[in-house]
Every structure is written in C-alpha cells, then in structure tokens.
Amino acid sequence: MAPVKKRKRMPIVGAVMTSFPYFVDAEDTATTLERMMEEHNIRHLPVQENGKVVGIVSERDLHHQVKRAAPKAVKDQILARQIMIPDPYIVPFRTPLHEVVFEMAKRRIGSVLVQRQGKLAGILSAIDVCRIFGEYLESMFPGGKRGGDSAA
Fold this sequence. Notes:
This protein is an alpha/beta fold. The chain has seven helices and eight strands; from the N terminus they run αββαββαααββαββα. The longest helix is centred in the C-terminal third of the chain and has 15 residues.
C-alpha cells in the first residue's frame, strides 16, 4: 500500500510573526519613537492608548514628518498621535498567512499588527515575509547557494 501523503496546512500569522513587539503610547514624543527604532533596529511601532491599538508609525512616516536633523526640542514637541497612521491593519492571531500577505500587497503596506484576545500579540513586517519566503524557497530547492551568485 502506498504511503498516504500528509496535506500541508497553511501557516497562521501567529506562527510566523514577531512576538511581543515594542510599542509606544499616543502621547510619546518623536524623540522617544526615534530612539526606540534605533535601539531595537525596528521600522514599525504600534501606537496604543489605554491599552488599545490606535495606530502605527513607520520609520518612513516618522522621518517624513520630523527630519532626522531636527533639534531635540522640536522632536519633543511632536507626539506619536500626530505622526501615526490611524486604524492600522490588524488581524487575529489565527488568520491564515496567505490572506495577510495578499492583503498587505493589496494595501501596499509594510506591516500588519496581530492581536490575540483583543491584545497586541505581534507584528508581521514585509521583512518577515521576505525571510519566510526565502526559507520556503530553500526548502523547495535544496542545495541552492546563498548569496554570491546574484545577477545584480
């Protein structure tokens, strides 16, 4: 009797997201946002108010509104709520990954926030999606070389 092939299941976003993301409060200053992004080498910060996600700030949004060279005194006057994109794309923990990735492309956004039981649980960025896709390609085409042989 031939072995039965086990059908692979679509991963859920909660299985591949970055857990316990850093976040800021809506009243935090641009100085705080910039420092957190630099310290933790991240490009997206969820914004919360009273424990509820109300927006997201990307590094691009931050530096579009506040120039890197601006004096600290200026950065201290600008709040996360003034920079954030309100109503970010938020999905439940168990959402199938392909649905999230397609929606990110459709909306032309670089990240999605993941909630579990109404609380911020993680973030999935375009960088995470690239990493996941790279791992998938490696698994599909074993023995392929990493780096070095690019046409660019």
